[in-house]
Amino acid sequence: MAETQVKPDAASRPIGEPLVVLEHVDKHFGSLHVLKDINLTVRRGEVVVVIGPSGSGKSTLCRTINRLETIDSGTIAIDGTRLPEEGRALARLRADVGMVFQSFNLFAHKSVLENVTLGPTKVKGLSRAAARTKANALLERVGVANQADKLPAQLSGGQQQRVAIARALAMDPQVMLFDEPTSALDPEMINEVLDVMVSLAAEGMTMIVVTHEMGFARKAAHRVVFMDGGQIVEESDPETFFTAPSSERARDFLSKILTH
């Protein structure tokens, strides 16, 4: 895919009512306190980029939002509905929350097209024909329509990640979670995935993105959330965060990553 030429202006993109709300969320792994009293509200249409050093709790935070990780206390709600503990209600709510991981997690024995149609047919009851039509349109949207009949192993890492994005979009999610989606990619493949994410942001998709790609944060985010030690240390618009961070920890973090 060609590099995105149109830079979406985050400030000009409208955002709506609260969609994802975390209140006083705590999480332990044994004696390790990985999330400490997290309070975060993401509004409909907003792009929030979560950054911070390794081990700061970013990925755990992302995974609690669709209950891939349970929480010890606090509440998480999607569109006004608290995350259920388990069962069908949780599966229904998860369908509203698309997730793209570091590793692509595609079904190796199924074609690209089958990977994208599986969720809509099995979970949402879409007919095979309708699911194929939808999948082909999404594969076209992410630039891999010509790979529809191939197996994931026949694709590059960047292509596989774009298929993973299409698969998540096929469920018509209200919000998309991205957990370091480019960290496993070769450098030349990173932009082709970021370009798709930038276009989703420009179209108004609600997104929570854990990433080390500062260029994406500057280009597409409404808000940057900086985490360290399991806490949200500060949050602000990208321009303010990157030019005048308020905390010493953020200044130290940025001084290390922006010089490389």
Automatic annotation (TrEMBL):
One of its GO terms (cellular component) is plasma membrane. It is found in: Cell membrane. It catalyses: a polar amino acid(out) + ATP + H2O = a polar amino acid(in) + ADP + phosphate + H(+). Keywords: Amino-acid transport, ATP-binding, Cell membrane, Membrane, Nucleotide-binding, Transport. Residues 20-254 form the ABC transporter domain. The keyword Nucleotide-binding applies. Belongs to the ABC transporter superfamily. It is a peripheral membrane protein. It is an enzyme of class 7 (translocase). It comes from the Bacteria. This is ABC-type polar-amino-acid transporter. Its EC number is 7.4.2.1. Its main location: membrane. GO terms for molecular function: ATP binding; ATP hydrolysis activity; ATPase-coupled polar amino acid-transporter activity. It comes from Cellulomonas rhizosphaerae. Transmembrane segments: none annotated.
